[in-house]
Inverse folding.
């Protein structure tokens, strides 16, 4: 089989579908999402049986428990996928919105209209629910989607795709609305990365290796959903109780995700009072502290931090700690080590809060709240396809609006340029 | 000299400058623009003398007249550059605008704030005025800029940079606000294209070859300012007078630019009446007509069009013409051949106008107006750094807003995620 040809044909089919999807009426798109939801529930047994094949294969090769958990579907998880589809149907259709409209001195009426991106390629790894979630958000926003999942979930994904594609076609959407690359050869990704003109954007979702590889090799534009080396800075004027709650939440509520806290900065004037109590609690919660020399002096049993500890996204029960001399030093430290994902200051001081919001450059900058809120659902977008850490196009949680572009529509009356 | 090291050091300087520029107050930025303007006028003789060196060198190697014209500076052109700076100073500062703000059920107040992209790399060719225009738009929008001009203008650019950089520093902006790569070795571009983390976006401005090379080789995100294969479709219900005026304007007002018309589609029911008269006028204006078989039958002296003629951006006094059977066929033809820049329908029919606006996908879609209006100045943006033909980030004319990204700022009161 010629892989290049195979992937290119799928993408051509997607492009044709995207043309129709781009002005498909909202009711038909919603109907498709509801049909997809129904079909998932009706074919639960089939999907679970195929998922079982993936799980057994994974166990055979000694896959880690965490990965097997991500791979595993059960009754409840399929129900959740079905519910997510219903919820996506209930969201407002972003397409056709006129973001603004104005009149020029030539009496041209110019409007900026929200339209789909076109064809979105999603390259992802283990979790089969991404197949459904990504397809739902793309269809609702009028985009065709090409899904390329990981080989560990190939049987689950193939089953899900068979079920939801049938529902999509039955609802009157073009067959190319959802394309799935059912060959897991790495070469399929290489081909996708070069399909300029057929694929409008690639969104890699998965480990740092996958994302780096796509960013470095794709000529198709990429939206980078990246790593989060998130800081919390406890200012001289922090409310200690808020600080403690936020730090424990940001570090521990779900340590393995990108919006979890990785590094703590504390103003020197409050370090003596604040750090020992906090660190005791964190250690009771099994968090390893890697601290600067001042932290080591104030707190017992601290692992000395090396420079890399401040640059690392642990995604684990490890926290780097540094005592800083001023707000400026905190901002400079964040500038140096941040991946510009989510950064927080804890302070009761108005001017320091405003300065932090203004001077720290990240997708989300917080005053007195947990970095864990950086999420499409929490922000009120009704879902997300990932969190962008790049500056171009979309930054932060990517909901339906972030899967769109705009076009200018111009109503004239015979105007020509002088 | 180690080129990689040289370019990287410049970019590091830019990144440091970008940090300060990102929250620089509007008055200081405006003052710098006005100082730059003044400095250009004060150093006119010096700039013209350096420009003369470039022109002589170009003449020596037999450069085309058109290119030499683009390269040439004179009193008036320097005055124009100085005026453009004053105008940019008068535009509203996009930075700090809160595009929207809302409250979540957790009582978090979330705002989306416009912030600079950071460091913008501009890779451009002959025209020295780009040096000033690009620098002005970048500074006003709080970005640091790295300029890499063509070797044919190296003396002019070096002189301009020396003059405006001095003004910038005098005004209190960081020295890295404007960096200039004064080595014309092609390798400098290669280095820029790989400086992820130091350069936030690259904007190539120039010929198709330059743009293609940057799009294909850059790992830094690129904004593509591309080609325009722009169509005008004369509907069955067109007002012939409007149609004729618009076609002549779109084709001839400035044929060598991307928003000029390249291809004409005419509904079959009006072709017999409309085409002969129009083509006569066009031929009198020295436009070569390359037509389909129907056009050849209706109009005399038509060059038979081959398929490539419909795909080509002539940038010259050549027009491809096709008679189509319906609005659907026109839309399909545009879908197939368009570069999605600017497309126009001429019609008095309400439903056809609305369908064309909805179904044609391009940066700018017109009813009854010339494609030549696709321009930052004409759209009311007060200037532009190019016209994006990609869908990601910016589409259409790129003014100050398109040189920005956003960050979410979140005002909390101790909230944690449940």
């Amino acid at each position: 089989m010629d892989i290049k040809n195979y992937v290119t044909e799928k993408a051509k089919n997607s492009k044709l579908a995207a043309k129709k999807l781009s002005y498909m009426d909202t009711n038909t798109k919603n109907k498709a999402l509801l049909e997809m939801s129904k079909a998932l529930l009706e074919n639960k047994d089939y999907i679970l049986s195929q998922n079982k094949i993936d799980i057994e294969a994974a166990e055979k090769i000694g896959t880690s428990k965490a990965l097997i958990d991500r791979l595993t579907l059960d009754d409840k998880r399929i129900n959740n996928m079905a519910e997510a589809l219903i919820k996506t149907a209930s969201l407002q259709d972003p397409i056709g919105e006129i973001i603004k409209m104005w009149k020029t001195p030539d009496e041209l009426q110019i409007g900026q209209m929200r339209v789909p991106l076109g064809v979105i390629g999603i390259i992802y790894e283990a979790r089969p629910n991404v197949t459904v979630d990504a397809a739902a958000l793309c269809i609702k926003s009028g985009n065709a989607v090409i899904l390329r999942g990981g080989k560990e979930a190939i049987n689950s994904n193939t089953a899900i795709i068979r079920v939801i594609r049938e529902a999509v076609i039955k609802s009157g959407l073009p067959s190319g609305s959802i394309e799935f690359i059912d060959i897991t050869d790495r070469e399929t990704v290489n081909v996708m990365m070069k399909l300029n003109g057929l694929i409008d954007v690639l969104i890699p979702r998965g480990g740092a290796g996958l994302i780096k590889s796509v960013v470095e090799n794709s000529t198709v534009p990429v939206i980078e959903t990246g790593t989060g080396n998130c800081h919390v800075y406890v200012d001289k004027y922090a409310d200690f109780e808020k600080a403690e709650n936020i730090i424990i939440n940001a570090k521990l509520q779900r340590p393995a995700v990108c919006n979890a806290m990785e590094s703590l900065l504390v103003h020197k004037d409050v370090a003596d009072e604040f750090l020992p109590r906090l660190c005791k609690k964190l250690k009771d919660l099994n968090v390893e502290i890697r601290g600067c020399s001042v932290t080591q002096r104030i707190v017992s049993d601290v692992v000395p931090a090396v420079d890399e500890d401040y640059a690392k996204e642990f995604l684990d029960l490890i926290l780097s700690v540094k005592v800083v001399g001023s707000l400026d030093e905190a901002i400079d430290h964040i500038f140096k080590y941040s991946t510009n994902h989510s950064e927080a200051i804890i302070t009761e001081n108005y001017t320091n809060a405003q300065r932090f919001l203004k001077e720290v450059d990240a997708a989300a900058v917080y005053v007195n709240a947990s970095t864990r809120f950086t999420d499409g659902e929490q922000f009120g977008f009704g879902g997300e396809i990932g969190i962008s850490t790049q500056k171009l196009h979309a930054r932060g949680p990517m909901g339906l609006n972030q899967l769109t572009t705009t076009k200018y529509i111009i109503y004239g009356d015979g105007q020509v340029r002088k």
Q: What stands out?
A: Chain B has two domains: 3-225+393-410, 230-377. The mean pLDDT of chain B is 96. Residues 34 and 86 of chain B are 6 Å apart (CA to CA).
